[in-house]
């Protein structure tokens, strides 16, 4: 029997067993926008649903790497919130299991950038009664945001909201989002010490037997 082959198979088995965690597929449909569309997402303006003019919602396609962009313009005649929304279905997530929510963001605008009067980009969880703000920013910037939730948010809407400011120098703002992922971390049991010891002894025994045969030749 080939000792090297047995050793390789055993090591693969051990490596697979000691893997501590694995991430399931994202629970958010088209969160990375790699369909290069906003499929799976709802558009909303001032909580009245999808606007007739959807020009403030677009897809940025950078050589096949796509992301979503939402804009808002501020004027005397136009002053409203624009939101990109998806509903969470966590019905298959067990109680007590943590879910990692993350997304990449870029926010840019032409405001005074003060917290009371500027355009505001925020991310909220909303079920129509309860609203929880996860993230908000009024200054130009970018980054990756990560937090944890659980299945108590089943049925909630995850909303990326752009709110216009209220000052004479508030003109227009834009946010870009990408890689919106909601994943469940599942523990994989590590093998018992006795199992590893037994496998190690088996390898040693096979090797000695192989060496004895070679010595007898």
TrEMBL record:
Keywords of this entry: Signal
Signal sequence residues: 1-25
Domain of life: Bacteria
Keyword Signal: yes
Record protein name field: PEP-CTERM sorting domain-containing protein
Lineage: Bacteria, Pseudomonadati, Pseudomonadota, Gammaproteobacteria, Alteromonadales
């Amino acid at each position: 029997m080939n000792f090297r082959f047995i050793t390789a198979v055993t090591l693969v088995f051990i490596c697979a067993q000691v893997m501590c965690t694995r991430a399931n597929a994202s629970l958010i449909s088209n969160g990375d926008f790699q369909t290069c569309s906003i499929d799976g997402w709802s558009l909303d303006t001032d909580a009245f649903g999808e606007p007739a003019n959807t020009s403030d919602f677009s897809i940025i396609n950078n050589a096949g790497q796509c992301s979503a962009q939402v804009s808002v313009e501020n004027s005397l005649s136009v002053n409203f919130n624009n939101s990109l929304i998806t509903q969470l279905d966590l019905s298959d997530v067990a109680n007590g299991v943590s879910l990692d929510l993350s997304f990449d963001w870029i926010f840019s605008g032409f405001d005074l950038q003060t917290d009371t009067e500027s355009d505001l980009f925020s991310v909220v969880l909303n079920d129509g009664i309860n609203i929880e703000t996860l993230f908000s920013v009024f200054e130009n910037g970018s980054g990756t945001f990560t937090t944890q939730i659980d299945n108590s948010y089943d049925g909630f809407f995850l909303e990326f909201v752009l709110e216009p400011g209220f000052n004479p120098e508030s003109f227009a703002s834009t946010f870009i989002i990408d890689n919106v992922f909601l994943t469940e971390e599942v523990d994989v049991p590590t093998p018992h010490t006795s199992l590893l010891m037994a496998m190690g002894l088996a390898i040693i025994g096979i090797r000695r037997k192989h060496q004895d045969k070679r010595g007898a030749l």
